[in-house]
Fold this sequence. Notes:
CATH topology: Alpha-Beta Plaits
Strand content: 15-25%
CATH architecture: 2-Layer Sandwich
Low-confidence stretches: 163-194
Number of domains: 1
Largest sheet: 2 strands, antiparallel
Strand order of the largest sheet: 1-8
Number of strands: 10
Shape: globular
Mean pLDDT: 80
Order of helices and strands: EHEEHEEHEEHEHHEE
Amino acid sequence: MNQAFPPSKGYLVFDPELCTGCHVCEAICSFTKEGHIWPEVSRIQVHTDPFNGTVENYVPKPCLQCDTPQCMLACPAEKAMCIDEKTGARLINTAYCKEGCKKCMEACRSYFDPPRILFHPHKNGYVKCDLCEGAPECVKWCPNGALKYIGRSEFIEKGARYQLSFTEAFEKDFGPTLEPFEGLKWKYKGPWLR
């Protein structure tokens, strides 16, 4: 299906060298959206890989606001998914998401592991990042400045600086890979060192 979507006007990116895995972003996201701290339904999830062997031990996983959002293409419910006119964020309208069919999450999972869409048990539906109307709370509260909200032009111009957030979708590879021995040393063959 060739459907054109307006691009997002902003993106959440992060610096893996600054993320310490404190989970403040999860706490503030859930508090903002739910009224109390509930990390399991935070729209940003921080995943830990203690065996990574590089600085990318903690990896925040925000929605990437895809140019061609597979979640929207897969959704069978009219008006359940839409695009915010102000931010360009891809949104789930839980009022119209009554089936809880999880097709949006499965479509997201086909590109991202883990998927950026979560099941919300109290709403009996799915939720994802909506960029907080263009002022993401996770960015404001990140104690180390690891998260950043950037505009479309900066993303296009300097997107390579934010490699970890955006290449993983296309590489289908979580983090760098360590491949055994070149001589007596481990050789780093991750997708971010070219």
